[in-house]
Amino acid sequence: MNPRILTDNHIEQFKQHLVSSEKSPHTIAKYCRDVRAFTAFLDRRAVTKELAVAFKQTLLDSGYAPASVNSMLASINSLFSFLGWFDCKVKAIKQQRQIFCNEEKELTKAEYVRLLNAAKQKKNDRLNLILQTICGTGIRVSELQFITVEAARAGQVTVKCKGKVRTVFLVKELQKKLLRYAKERHITAGTIFITRSGKPLNRTNIWREMKALCKDVNVNPNKVFPHNLRHLFARTFYGLEKDIAKLADILGHTSIDTTRIYIISTGREHRKRMECLHLVQ
To answer: Which among 6, 189, 140 has a CA at the least distance from the CA of 82?
Structure first.
């Protein structure tokens, strides 16, 4: 059997395969980044099952979390499937389902309010409203482009993401804020959150602006990023409704197992519930 040398041409063909499979740009970039990391590890050596397993171990030895390792393995296993190198595929690391989250990574509602106030004090109305829009709807930052003037008027947004279409409702207060913001900036149609050139905002710029608020309000920067607003929405919604299936639909999740990750409580809350059992006399 000829040695399996992974080339730039292979990676480009794999990228085009992902495009034709209608993967999101973010997913495509992530898969290609992981594959190039594997290519660098190979250092021109032929691909074998043994080297793929060694790559997994190297990631673990380098301090990668098991979930991150499994994510990278999913990328290279997808590549192997595309190339027909099925015998090189590597098993994921088995993990026990997490029952509580790290408090240092969970954004609280109080911290969220402090961020809103900081954005308001800095007169950054756009960032303030972006935070409220993501946290008030549970949408992804990449889905902000679907928040249009027309959607604000209708009170609902049609979101198209990852090959799925879902409807997201806007509460009346958010409707009014969005329409007022659009009117003040003379945006009469289309996407509301845009750059000066009229293009949808880049997620990196939003992330950077959010981080800049942390120092002013004493919030850990490690927990301040757009996706954590989505998590806060999920925990708050579930706390009221206790309906994980409905929440999965709202968030656009195919699997409820994904939604479970969003609603796990902190270790402090988990400990408090255990104390309430009063089983140790």
So the answer is: 6
Q: How many CB atoms lie within 10 A of CB 163?
A: 10
Position 152 scores a pLDDT of 97
Taking the C-alpha atoms of residue 163 and residue 258, their distance in angstroms, rounded to an integer, is 17
Q: Which of 100, 165, 143 is nearest to 229 (CA)?
A: 143
126 in Cβ contact with 225 (< 8 Å): no
Cβ–Cβ under 8 Å, residues 125 and 133: no
* Regions of the chain with pLDDT less than 70: 1, 96-104, 265-271, 273, 279, 281
Closest CA to 178 of 211, 134, 227, 229: 134
Question: Could you tell me if 243 and 112 lie in one domain?
Answer: yes
User: Is the Cβ–Cβ distance between 211 and 221 less than 8 Å?
Assistant: yes
User: What does the alpha-carbon distance between residue 234 and residue 260 come to, in Å, rounded to a whole number?
Assistant: 10
- Residues 212, 115 within the same domain: yes
Number of separate domains in the chain: 2
The predicted model scores a pTM of: 0.70
Question: Would residue 159 count as lying in a domain?
Answer: yes
* Nearest to 225, CA basis, from 123, 58, 86, 106: 106
Print the domain residue range for 36: 8-88
Is 214 within a domain? yes
pLDDT tens digits, one per residue of 176-229 = 999 999 999 999 999 999 988 888 888 888 999 999 999 888 899 989 999 999
